[in-house]
Structure formats: C-alpha cells, structure tokens
Amino acid sequence: MTSASESVGAVSAQWDIVTGVGFTALAVAAGRAMETHRDGGLVSDPYAEAFVRAADAPIELPTRPGESDDDPDVPWATMARYMGVRSRYFDDYFNAAATTASQVVLLAAGLDTRAFRLDWPAGTTIYELDAPKVLAFKDRVLNERGAHPHADRRIVAVDLREEWTKPLRAAGFDPSRPSAWLAEGLLPFLPNAAKQHLLATVDSLTAAGSSIELEYVADLASLRRDPEFQQRRARMSERTGFDITQLWPDEKEDFPVDTWLRDHGWTVTVEHVDDAAQRYGAQFPEQSMFPARGGQFVTARKPDGTQRSSDRT
Prior knowledge:
alpha/beta
C-alpha cells in the first residue's frame, strides 16, 4: 500500500522534476531506462522511461541505446552504464539487508522505483524522502501506469537540509528497530557540514543491526579543479545548457564519510565503482571522469551492542 505524504511544518524544497537537483533525478531515470533496454542490462526498471516521457525536460534525454552515440562531450552511454552498475549494487544491498531489517529509508528518493520493482519480504515498510513536487510527479506517473508497490510504501515530503526526523517518525518509522538506509546520488550536492549532520542524524535514528549504503566520490574537491574536467564540463554545458557542477558545493577538501562512520562505531566496507563494475561484467572508457573516477560505494553496518548516539551519555 502507499500512504499519503507526511510532513511537519513548511517545506522549503520547492524544486520540481525539471529544475535543479530534481532534474538530476530525471537524468538518472533516463540512464536506468537506457540500461533497461540494453542487451544484458544490469537493471530492469519498467517505469524509468515513462518518467522521462512524462516530463517537459529542458534538454532531450535518451532512454534507449540507439538514441545516443559515444560523443565524449555528452557521454550518455557511459553515464547509463554507471547508473546500471550503481542501481544493481544498491539492489543487491537491499535484497540482503531486507532479510533482517523491515524498515527501509530512501534519502532523496527521487524517481527510485525499488518499492515497485524489487521483491520485498512481507512486513517491509519503505519510507521515501524527497521534495514535495518531485514525489508528486513520481506518484502521478506511477498511478497512470497502474503501478503497485510490493511493500508498505510511505512518502515523506521533506527538505533534507532542514529538520526531517519528525516527519519520518510521524510516518511510522521506529528508531528502536533495525533499518536499512540508502543515500544514492545525494552526497555530492551536500556541503561537508551537511554531510556530517546527515550521518549524525542517521546514527541517532538507527538501532543495532541497521545498515546504510552511500554513493561517495572521494576526490570531488580536486576533480572540480582538474583542468581536463573543467574543459569537458564546459563543453557538455555548452551542448546541453546544464552544468551539474553548479549544484555542487565548492569545498576545498572532501568529507571522509567512511572514517566518520568507523569513528562512530559502524563497521564499514568500501568498494570502488570500477571494481563493482568488473564484478558485474561492465567497464567504463578509460577517459571517464565523473562519477566513475573516484566513485565509491560505502556500506556501513551498526554492530549488535552499538547504542544510538541519542542514547549515549
């Protein structure tokens, strides 16, 4: 079942699916659609293409392999392959985590359709957190497609830059029970202070046996200053009219999320994107920059006996 949106107070996040970070969710859906239609694709998302077709996107977004070429200035095929690897990796995470955690939290859920396309154990509740207009667009398209979730899906309209724990709790989330969290495509858009605050909040809401996976770009601060990257970014921006780096905070150093989690009692493993791709039989062109270069998947688990930070003295 899907519940009504829950929120407490005003929500500042007013971007829709074709502006700002909302548009990045639409571009990600286009990548999943391309991977879905690719022979031997790593993910199957029957709704991704419908999202792109339903939106009045500011630029044309390919949804099938034949609609794009290998233009190095606008590498749609490479980006789609990355989305396939990323989606498959996090799908595998949830297939394992859901066997012990009946609560799933998708931070900045965007156009994620895992509630609809994965098989979830009975009793699973999925909380999707994102901006109201993004969630409204998503639900409209899914309803038009007659989609039905395979779990108890609860949407929570919030601005993750502000207080969001009360709306999450109001939607039914229970911090005393194990939970599985995902931050996919989120951290690059947060300044370091916000990254730390997000992790501290998750830490305070999670019981022993909980887990979180994060997509992390280890060298984002240096990448945005790389002359080659700047030239390629400028060419892509000129061709598409969209510059993703305008949405990135300008930080001098990267925030080590894996170190922070270890220091707070979590057991952490890190896998580089290239290594994950190799396991799945995929690869990226040598000239790939972002996000394949420096990209990491961070998996953290809170061992039994670990207290939530709010319970510590």
